[in-house]
Design brief:
Blueprint lengths: L23 H4 L2 E2 L6 E8 L5 E6 L8 E6 L2 E9 L2 E9 L8 E3 L8 E4 L2 E4 L10 E4 L7 E5 L8 E5 L7 E6 L9 E7 L7 E2 L1 E2 L8 E3 L4 E4 L7 E4 L17 E6 L8 E6 L7 E7 L4 E6 L13 E3 L8 E5 L9 E7 L7 E8 L4 E6 L8 E5 L5 E7 L2 E2 L8
Parallel strand pairs: 15-20
Antiparallel strand pairs: 1-31, 2-30, 3-4, 4-5, 5-6, 7-8, 8-9, 9-10, 11-12, 12-13, 13-14, 16-17, 17-18, 18-19, 20-21, 21-22, 22-23, 24-25, 25-26, 26-27, 28-29, 29-30
């Protein structure tokens, strides 16, 4: 299993996890025919109004663990097996909304956590010790995203918020001593959410990193993240759907149509009837053509977005699920990229009846396919949605 490990060095690579089977039949992967089924497992019960989610190898045992928090408090669930997750305290003290991300902040080779106003330092013995909290002047926010904004080869942190105290989109350069205050650079006005989980990339092809803020993209005019030029052009047909908390979208930058430039996939959120769509990049970011992925009406609040090759056919598919404001029965969907270029989508309902908020995707169990973890906004059930495309277990699962 390849697991991306965020570090201060943006070129850090992932690790591998070897699984030894108890018998030969368990060691030989079985491949499901057609689009995979997904089997839900309850990781555990904890919290309410939680966010700050991540899948990351906190304990350096070679597989991703589930990181989650609520205002001022964080925990992590150690992965031992599909039905065997152990909860550990991570730390206390940071103030944030749902914004949080994982990276190696102090360069010691262990993954730390940024969560709004502070970061948590991995003690290097996370099974036995909690993380120490360091307030560094960063803002409480809905989105925290990790990227190399200024092109110096080290990861920075992008934050977005429409909080009355901090209504801005900013990024932070992590200093040599990360326990001191972080330098803040303003990109533009904030919205409720619009950068998470992957709203960044070189959209205009000029060699530097630009930022997507849901309804707009911000051109890195100076190349080093000091000067920005906003382009409010990512508007779907009929306009953006805005709910009680303000404009909120989930964003993912990727070359979806394989034409050599980066496009933008978005899921509308914090509204009762949201869409998933993508914007086709034309003329190096000068014009954008919107395309629906979901139906125009879904009855779902899509407060999650994960883009991955869920069926192992070599192209990216799209996951989202019904969040807290959904007016229909909560459903989790994967839209299969049927033509491999974003022109034809086939919807698969992979789970019904579980509220989905701030989902993340990775090969959690190391069997060669991409799984999904999520939880509700109000509620305590944390769900591991196991992809059964490739299974090292002998028993068959029937959804």
């Amino acid at each position: 299993m390849n697991v991306r490990r965020f570090s201060r060095n943006a070129s850090a690579a992932g690790g591998h996890r070897a699984l030894a089977g108890l018998a030969f039949i368990l060691a030989v992967p079985a491949y499901a025919a057609g689009f995979p089924a997904f089997e839900p497992h309850v990781m555990g019960l904890w919290g309410n109004s939680t966010g700050q989610t991540a899948l990351a190898d906190i304990d350096q045992d070679g597989d991703p663990d589930w990181v989650v928090g609520q205002r001022g408090e964080m925990v992590w669930f150690e992965f031992r097996g599909a039905d065997d997750w152990v909860r550990h305290e991570l730390g206390k003290g940071a103030k944030t909304d749902v914004g949080g991300a994982v990276l190696d902040i102090n360069g010691d080779g262990w993954l730390d956590v940024i969560a709004g106003t502070a970061w948590y330092r991995n003690p290097r013995k996370p099974l036995k010790k909690s993380f120490k909290c360091f307030p560094v002047g960063t803002i409480s926010c809905h989105d925290d995203v990790v990227a190399d904004v200024n092109g110096d080869g080290r990861l920075d942190v992008i934050a977005c918020s429409n909080d009355q105290a901090n209504p801005r989109l900013v990024w932070y350069a992590i200093p040599e001593n990360p326990e001191k205050a972080w330098a803040e650079y303003v990109v533009g006005e904030g919205i409720h959410g619009g950068v998470d989980p992957a709203g960044f990339g070189d959209l205009d092809g000029d060699g530097d990193l630009d930022i997507v803020r849901g309804d707009a993209w911000f051109e890195n005019a100076s190349g080093d993240g000091k000067q920005w030029r906003g382009h409010p052009v990512l508007i779907p047909p009929g306009g953006s759907r805005i709910g009680q908390f303000g404009l909120c979208l989930k964003s993912w930058v990727i070359d979806l149509d394989r034409d050599g430039d980066l496009d933008v996939i978005e899921a509308e959120a914090d509204f009762e009837d949201c869409r998933v769509l993508w914007f086709e990049n034309r003329d190096r970011g000068a014009t954008w053509q919107p395309h629906l992925i979901s139906p125009e009406s879904t009855g779902q609040d899509f407060h999650s977005l994960a883009v991955a090759d869920f069926d192992n056919d070599g192209d990216p598919d799209v996951f989202s699920g019904g969040g807290p404001l959904s007016k229909a029965l909560h459903c989790c969907y994967i839209w299969e990229n049927a033509d491999g270029r974003g022109g034809l989508w086939k919807r698969h309902n992979v789970l019904t009846g579980e509220r989905c908020h701030e989902a993340k995707a990775a090969d959690v169990d190391g069997d060669g396919d991409v799984d999904i973890c999520f939880k509700p906004w109000q509620g305590s059930r944390h769900i591991f949605l196991e992809n059964r495309l490739v299974s090292k277990r002998s028993e068959a699962y029937q959804p």
